[in-house]
Amino acid sequence: MVELKEIQRIRYPPFEASRWIPSALPIAQRTASIGDFESKAEAQSFLNTKGPSVQIGEEDSWLIERSYRYGEDELHPISELAVLEHETFPNVVYRQRQGWYLIPNPIHNILRKFINGVVVILLLSLAYLFISPILIFLSIPVYGIETVRWGLLDYPSLAVVVVPLIFAPLIVRVCANLLELRRQNSFLKRGLKSPTIKFLKSSISDQALEFDLIFPEWDDGWKHVDVMWRVGVLPPAREVLFKELAREVTRQPPPGLATELPHHWEEGLDDGTAGGEDAPMELQDVKGGFYLRPMRIMSSGGSQRWDDGKSICLSPPEPIWPGTLNSDLIRIHWECIIRIEREQKGALLWVQPLKVAHSKTLDRITDLPLHDGRSELDIR
Fold first, then answer.
1. Cα angle 246-370-67, degrees, rounded to a multiple of 5
2. So what's the pLDDT on residue 363?
3. How many CA atoms lie within 13 A of 121 on its CB side?
4. Whole-prediction pTM value?
5. In whole angstroms, how far apart are CA 255 and each of 23, 29, 81?
6. Does residue 90 carry a pLDDT above 90?
7. Which DSSP category does 87 fall into?
8. Cα separation, 156 vs 137, whole angstroms
9. Domain regions of the chain by residue span
10. CA 201, CA 354: separation in Å to the nearest integer?
11. Is 148 helix (H, G, I), strand (E, B) or coil?
12. Residue 17 backbone zone (phi > 0: left; psi -120 to 50: alpha; other: beta)
């Protein structure tokens, strides 16, 4: 008898993955026993009823991998039918990725870029003030170093320009957050009814998604509705990452993970690396929040403008992705997004999680579609 094992390995991109070097972060690995089999053929026959092997990314980059090993041999499931592995969604989907969501005000993204520019100006100004004595010694004209008195202290006149540039975007962003809270309260009072989706056939990762969309009520302020679907990888459970990386939850987190933030993180939901900056200010008593955080590895399929009385048909993402896969480490998630453009107060999103079967063939995905973890950059 030889043991058949399932091996899961993951190096998931942290929040703002562009600031990290993937190869410098550890890979979490879990090995689980599937059962003992007398022959390789018997193990292969059993394996054909399970989901396929999965490899997204590369060994020296971000990586999501599932493989099967029978003794020293690696086996790959071979199936003639599409396979749906799990019938239930993880808690993170029920809590954070279904129902109504708002689109953040674009001012948040604009101000973030503006602040980055202000920081550059501030550093250049400090460098200029630092070398100004040298410039004066070399008889090179300098400007902005004369002093201006504010209260009891003297400041370089250059500060009259730079300081307002620093504080202005912060003040505007506070005002934008207050407007976001007002918009959230207004949406809660509206009590909008959920749209109804009637699927016309089973969902498979390499086939078009077909369904009918019905709105129980229509608001006069709505202009049009666009529908799309997408697939991505959700963050692994933080406590499982700590366990597989041989770290204690109460100690220093592994590279790439942040210190636990109790008011943003809940056991089993995510890796806890996004908090505070991933969305504008939200009312804390709403389950899942008001803003949909993008999956950091994510690919979109087709999109279509909704027309009352006509069915929706959305082409699948390319290359071919695995279907729905839910474990503590690897969570491949599919969702359908209905975007309602409104005349005022920004667009509305309705998010419907999908159970999608694995196709008979899969593409190896090496060029990962990475996304920032901020909700203000999702679905513009």
1. 50
2. 77
3. 14
4. 0.88
5. 11, 15, 40
6. no
7. S
8. 19
9. 2-75, 91-104+192-377, 109-186
10. 12
11. strand
12. alpha
